[in-house]
Design a protein that fits this description.
Length: 476
């Protein structure tokens, strides 16, 4: 996507995503609190202020917020659509991890019923959008949960402006080709007017899947089918960097920073913040840290790794296994290199509130983002936004979309290569202040100029233009 050249005046934006940005948490008899959910999409869209936005998404309960419109899905649909097709099939496949090993055959068998539930759930989202749609609205569908939605919406109203954005990588066409529903999914997405990805590579993979699997024509603008063009664009997400920078000035954050500095004085702080998910490469990161300690005895009492991992999908056996695996490795390393007064790894299985997170980012010397695959990775952006005083170093997986934007300032690593990551840790800890500053300044400029607001405005402006151009073409 290019920079927006005109700003729509408070256009209504219907953001359709699997989950609403808030969840209702019971705090007592008949007392419910609304809490903002953790996750990349929510963090990014919270920064979008240019539109009159409404959220449409799945909610367990009725949400008392007029900007949030719930979609109610029954338990069986959720099981087949969300746990099954979305999380067991599309998520690992789009991250090049393949189907879960233990139940690969069972997954293959239940494929058709899960895909049917996926389509049904997408139709239920479409029904809610249709009820609330007003002429002139822009409908922005998000992520791999809703690939069937553009088709449902356009069937109901061909003149609706529909955009679809994918937050994960779009894999190579060789991977997408293995999906039994490969063609139907691509055709449904192509019903949108604009299809967006974080990087040029993902956009290219999508276009080549359409040309190779559907036999359609790829053009520099997108994909053409019988004279109708679907625009395909790279439109990288950002964060609300001001929110992080402003938070650092708050007295409670300053107090938190003081406490952390005191707690870890005399030691360099390394930080990992991830959802506890296979794609984030947490075991690989911890093993690389172990290798670093093994090979650099002089650093053993001078560095600490803080790994904050929010548990997700806790009912899925594969995720439970990942949690125990991480605990086991952390325990072993702390037993091996810890002393009576200090351990090298502090691992927390929980979410941190925004202020605590900002304070942690600010006191960190080296951030470790070692995703095996990641659509973008906003943690790397958030770290950079909080580091203008300290100018810490970012070690970043070359398989995160963020490597395309922060690559010049970060130390890029292949997360599968533990020796390479261990060496990068040494390089980061020993880096001279001038080199750190140069790298940081590069990334800070990027993070503060390519923000979440810019991302959303660019996408919607591109979508408005695409629809106008298509109308002109039709008239000609
Ligand atoms: P996620 O996989 O959720 O997002 P990411 O982009 O890193 O990954 O965003 C995670 C968000 O959750 C960040 O805002 C972070 O602050 C927050 N978070 C993570 N761990 C936390 C913790 N322990 N405590 C508090 N907050 C925590 C998906 C894709 C990404 C893509 C985003 C946005 O997988 O690749 O960047 O969507 O498109």
């Amino acid at each position: 996507c290019g920079k927006p050249d005109r700003k729509p005046a408070r256009q209504r934006l219907l953001v359709v995503a699997n989950r609403l940005p808030v969840s209702a948490v019971r705090k007592g008899e008949d007392v419910w609190h609304l809490e903002i959910s953790a996750g990349g999409l929510v963090s990014a869209l919270l920064g979008v202020k240019e539109f009159e936005a409404r959220w449409i998404g799945w909610a367990g309960v009725n949400v008392p917020d007029t900007r949030c419109i719930p979609v109610f899905l029954d338990e069986e649909i959720v099981h087949q659509y969300y746990n099954g097709y979305c999380n067991n099939i599309l998520w690992p496949l789009f991250h090049y991890l393949g189907l879960p090993q233990e139940d690969r055959l069972a997954t293959t068998r239940s494929f058709q019923s899960q895909f049917a539930a996926y389509k049904k759930a997408n139709q239920m989202f479409a029904d809610v959008v249709n009820q609330h749609y007003e002429e002139g609205d822009v409908v922005w569908c998000h992520d791999y949960h809703l690939m069937f939605l553009p088709k449902c919406l356009k069937e109901y109203n061909p003149s609706m402006k529909v955009g679809w954005f994918l937050h994960t990588p779009f894999p190579s066409s060789e991977i997408h080709r293995t999906l039994p529903s490969r063609s139907e999914l691509l055709r449904s997405v192509l019903a949108a007017d604009l299809v967006g990805f974080h990087t040029y590579d993902y956009a290219r993979h999508f276009v080549s899947a359409c040309t190779r699997i559907l036999g359609l024509e790829g053009t520099p603008e997108g994909v053409e089918d019988q004279g109708r063009l679907t625009r395909v664009a790279a439109c990288p997400i950002g964060i609300d960097s001001d929110r992080f920078i402003r938070a650092l000035e708050l007295p409670q954050v300053q107090e938190h920073i003081r406490e952390l500095k005191e707690r870890f004085s005399g030691r360099k702080v390394m930080l990992g913040v991830d959802r506890l998910d296979m794609i984030k490469g947490i075991p690989q990161k911890i093993l690389a840290f172990e290798k670093f300690l093994e090979e650099n005895p002089t650093w053993r009492d001078k560095v600490v790794l803080l790994q904050i991992a929010v548990p997700t999908r806790t009912d899925v056996p594969e995720y439970q296994k990942l949690t125990s695996q991480v605990h086991e490795i952390v325990g072993r390393i702390n037993g091996r290199f810890g002393t009576l007064t200090a351990v090298p790894i502090h691992h927390l299985d929980r979410s941190l509130d925004f202020h605590a997170l900002c304070a942690l980012y600010a006191v960190t010397d080296v951030a470790l983002v070692t995703s095996l695959r990641d659509g973008m990775n906003l943690v790397s952006y958030e770290f950079v936004a909080c580091q203008d005083a300290k100018k810490g170093v970012l070690i970043l997986s070359e398989f995160a979309g963020a490597a395309q934007s922060l690559g010049a300032g970060a130390i890029l690593v292949n997360p599968w290569n533990i020796t390479e990551v261990a060496n990068a840790i040494g390089q980061a800890l020993d880096m001279e202040p001038e080199a750190r500053e140069k790298r940081h300044n590069h990334n800070f400029l990027h993070v503060t100029t390519h923000t979440a607001q810019e991302w959303a405005e660019t996408f919607v402006s591109e979508l408005n233009d695409t629809v106008v151009e298509a109308e002109i073409r039709t008239r000609e």
